[in-house]
Specification:
The protein is an alpha+beta fold. The chain has two domains: 116 residues, no CATH class; 56 residues, no CATH class. It has four helices and eight strands. The strands form two sheets. Strands 1, 2, 3, 4, 5 and 6 form a six-stranded antiparallel sheet that branches. Strands 7-8 form a two-stranded antiparallel sheet. A hairpin with a 5-residue loop joins strand 1 and strand 2. The longest helix is centred in the middle third of the chain and has 11 residues. It is extended and about 85 Å long. The chain starts with a strand and ends in a 16-residue tail after the last strand.
Length: 217
């Protein structure tokens, strides 16, 4: 007696579509995927997952040998996520009775497969929920005394962030101590051919400022 069933075809471009089969025969699934010969086309894995107290078994068939540019680009769930397939693959759905462990075919739709697919990956993160959780988190700076934060922006004062009022109070009076002055002395009678340039150092030896980038601050 013919057994009609609907399967899902996954082509090499990762496009999913359903295909109704009037008489399901496992040995002829390679034809449904567009292959002329059954060579290397076989059952690759079976996933077992329970959704709403119903246990599903999903069988995946494909080919691991093929020509260049025929690679299947679908992102398959573990444990076949690292395997390279060629051409189209197909997935067949079944339900399993827990007491008897008997399997029976179901009409697998793309919508049902997407639900199972998400379950196999452990579920996807709800970005809306994550955003709300971030809004509820306490700001660590709220517990820092105002005296330890800058007046503008409320940032924590450290070796790199300082208050603008602090910089205004810095003593810049020593900036001219190490200045070099180039003087132009007038020509003295009886001396040389022209003006003599004299370089005078009116300050102490040039000193280099040292910056401490240690993590002790």
């Amino acid at each position: 007696m013919p057994q009609p069933v609907t399967i899902v075809i996954v082509d090499k471009n990762a496009t999913l579509k359903t295909l109704a089969i009037k008489d399901y025969k496992e040995e002829e699934l390679y034809k449904k995927c567009g292959f002329k010969k059954p060579d290397e086309f076989a059952l690759q894995t079976e996933w077992s997952v329970k959704i709403d107290k119903q246990k599903y078994v999903i069988a995946m068939y494909g080919k691991t040998d093929g020509k260049a540019n025929m690679e299947n680009n679908y992102n398959w769930p573990p444990p076949v996520d690292k395997v390279l397939y060629f051409g189209s693959c197909c997935i067949v759905g079944m339900i399993c009775e827990e007491k008897t462990n008997n399997k029976s075919f179901i009409n697998l739709s793309v919508e049902l497969w997407n639900i199972i697919y998400e379950k196999l990956f452990g579920g996807f993160e709800d970005l809306t929920t994550t955003c709300n959780d971030d809004d509820d988190e306490e700001d660590e700076l709220d517990a820092i005394p105002a005296s330890m934060k800058t007046k503008k922006g409320g940032y924590l004062k450290d070796g790199f962030v300082v208050d603008s009022s602090d910089t205004e109070e810095m003593d810049l009076s020593d900036e001219d101590d190490d200045e070099l002055i180039l003087t132009d002395e007038p020509e003295e009678e009886g001396d040389g051919d022209g003006e003599e340039l004299i370089l005078e150092d009116i300050g102490s030896e040039l000193s280099e400022e040292k910056y401490d980038y240690s993590d002790d601050e």
